[in-house]
Amino acid sequence: MSQTPTRADFDQYMLPNYAPQQTIPVRGEGSRLWDQAGREYIDFAGGIAVNSLGHCHPVLVEALITQANKLWHLSNVYTNEPALKLARALVERTFADKAYLCSSGGEANEAALKLARRWAHDHHGAQKDRIVSFSHSFHGRTFFTVSVGGQPKYSQGFGPVPGGIVHGEFNSLDSVRELIDDRTCAVIVEPMQGEGGIIPATPAFLAGLREMCDSVDALLIFDEVQTGVGRSGAFFAYMEYGVTPDILTSAKSLGGGFPVGAMLTTDRVAPAMAVGSHGSTYGGNALASAVALAAVEFIDTPEVLAGVRARHECFREHLEAINRQHGVFREIRGMGLLIGAEMAPEYAGRAKEILPLAIEEGLMALIAGPNVLRMAPSLVIPEADIDEGMVRLERAVARLVAGR
Ligand SMILES: *Cc1c(COP(=O)(O)O)cnc(C)c1O
């Protein structure tokens, strides 16, 4: 009559919309995790680019506990000190003049898209409602964001899709030229496609989008939910590209594991969201804001950001060494600590098979689509954990190759 939950409980009690691995981790410290049986894992997955400082980082634990003993939640009928500090910290570090706080990436994008529609409506009229997005993009799972996203399988079967959305080809300015006109209110793009396969935008593509948006007075939205808050090696990836959006969304790394999201914009655009136009009960929650502020202040330092870029090189060298041995990858790419290894033609579509093998070897990794092995570890993962994790990954890859 054990009360300890098992993996079978997932199938019995939870909605069948996920297919989690068999192991159930119960404790984490830095870039290591332990499951119910006490087995240890090295974490190259980082909760899908979320655990930016690993598990239970003392700075985040301290911020959470201190705030937990003061005040958790007020609603938006009042404001609170952590939310004000977080908004200020984000504005002071970026192009933005104003921040909207929420609890996830999808919510941040929902706010961004509604803001763009509303701004265009107020400044140009109701006919300016067209949103340009890109194939293979991912912007969240709310019905608006999933419809804007470029993977139709995620929005099919749920009834009529919101209108006014068109999709171009990522990294092709020619494809955008045919879609953008005076009716366009916004272009939304990930500076590096994450779920779509770890595909960085070319600098010319982002610069060209900026120009085209300016020419028709459309707003440029950068979805930095996955690339932001140190993940790319800059505080936000747009800083590396030198192209500034009108609206930027952030989540994932921002909370280091606590649910939080943010939408940033300028004083030109922000007034379109007047009192009562949008909101969220948990947006600006004091606990979430306190943790996110601690994460932002810790990550946005020259040392941590330089550390991310150094670790990128370390990952790349290890993956290239594994590839010299086994020839499983066609290309290793990415920015900072968001790294993809695309499978070689002989292993096309088989990235997913590496994951359970890696688990057996004591390593957690990710995929980005059927063809790309993805890694998004802690931004401060110790070198020893990278080395040991790569030993385990090599064993998993060797088993894939040997078919055992
Ligand atoms: C994960 C992700 C989202 C969705 O974030 P949620 O917190 O799951 O709602 C949106 N955009 C990008 C680029 C993402 O990687």
From TrEMBL:
Binds 1 pyridoxal phosphate per subunit. InterPro entries: Ac/SucOrn_transaminase_bac, AcOrn/SuccOrn_fam, Aminotrans_3, Aminotrans_3_PPA_site, Class-III_PLP-dep_AT, PyrdxlP-dep_Trfase, PyrdxlP-dep_Trfase_major, PyrdxlP-dep_Trfase_small. Its cofactor is pyridoxal 5'-phosphate. One of its GO terms (molecular function) is N2-acetyl-L-ornithine:2-oxoglutarate 5-aminotransferase activity. Keywords: Amino-acid biosynthesis, Aminotransferase, Arginine biosynthesis, Cytoplasm, Pyridoxal phosphate, Transferase. GO terms for cellular component: cytoplasm. Pyridoxal 5'-phosphate binds at F138, D223, E224, V225, Q226, T281. N(2)-acetyl-L-ornithine binds at R141, S280. The keyword Coiled coil does not apply. GO terms for biological process: L-arginine biosynthetic process. It holds the Pfam family Aminotran_3. It is an enzyme of class 2 (transferase). The keyword Amino-acid biosynthesis applies. Its EC number is 2.6.1.11. It catalyses: N(2)-acetyl-L-ornithine + 2-oxoglutarate = N-acetyl-L-glutamate 5-semialdehyde + L-glutamate. It is found in: Cytoplasm. Pathway: Amino-acid biosynthesis; L-arginine biosynthesis; N(2)-acetyl-L-ornithine from L-glutamate: step 4/4. Belongs to the class-III pyridoxal-phosphate-dependent aminotransferase family. ArgD subfamily. Homodimer. PANTHER family: AMINOTRANSFERASE CLASS III (PTHR11986), SUCCINYLORNITHINE TRANSAMINASE (PTHR11986:SF113). May also have succinyldiaminopimelate aminotransferase activity, thus carrying out the corresponding step in lysine biosynthesis. This is Acetylornithine aminotransferase. It comes from Halomonas korlensis. The gene is argD.
